[in-house]
Amino acid sequence: MKKIILPLLVAGMCAAPSLTHAMSNPYVSLSGGIGLLNNSTVNGNDDAIEYDAGYLINGAVGLKGDSGRLEAEIGYHRNSVDSSDYYDPIGAHVSMWTFMANGYYDFELSNGDVSPYVMAGLGIADASISDGNWGPESSSTEFAWQLGAGVGIKTASNTTVDFGYRYLSPSDAEFDGGKVSLASSNFLVGIRYNF
């Protein structure tokens, strides 16, 4: 994994000055939606964990060019634990802060008001699992990546409503009981304001 990540980061750092020069229109965005954590097995005790549908909130600042965007994003995700083979899940939940650098490619259609897009992001995820009946809270900070697609609909000259899907995949979180996968499918609705 490190052999892949390092060249990507170096390439991104080299390209950043020219990209930011071309992208001179700043914006802010806020989005929220439903987060579906994949069911997982704890590597260590083979505990099978299932999660309820949860929620997430993202905020970002970025720069937009003719057909691309670069942004820095912070997000909060939370899902309750639905069932566990070994523990009583009552009161237990997983929460996660994400800090991501995202890139977008916008496909401008002829009318200019509707713009499908694809996106990718790299960053870190700071996850924790609550005590509930599982014992003390445990936390883990890991590398994370995400891929997504969606559509932006311009509702005013400087305002866009965004409908999107993202697959978020942190590296396995190392909690006290073992390693747990926290990959998720996320469905988002947001608003973007261009200055």
Automatic annotation (TrEMBL):
InterPro entries: Bact_OM_Invasion-Related (IPR051723), Beta-barrel_OMP (IPR027385), OMP/PagP_B-barrel (IPR011250). GO terms for cellular component: cell outer membrane. Keywords: Membrane, Signal, Transmembrane, Transmembrane beta strand. It comes from the Bacteria. Residues 1-22 form the signal peptide. It is a multi-pass membrane protein. Residues 8-195 form the Outer membrane protein beta-barrel domain. It is found in: Cell outer membrane. The keyword Membrane applies. This is Outer membrane protein beta-barrel domain-containing protein.
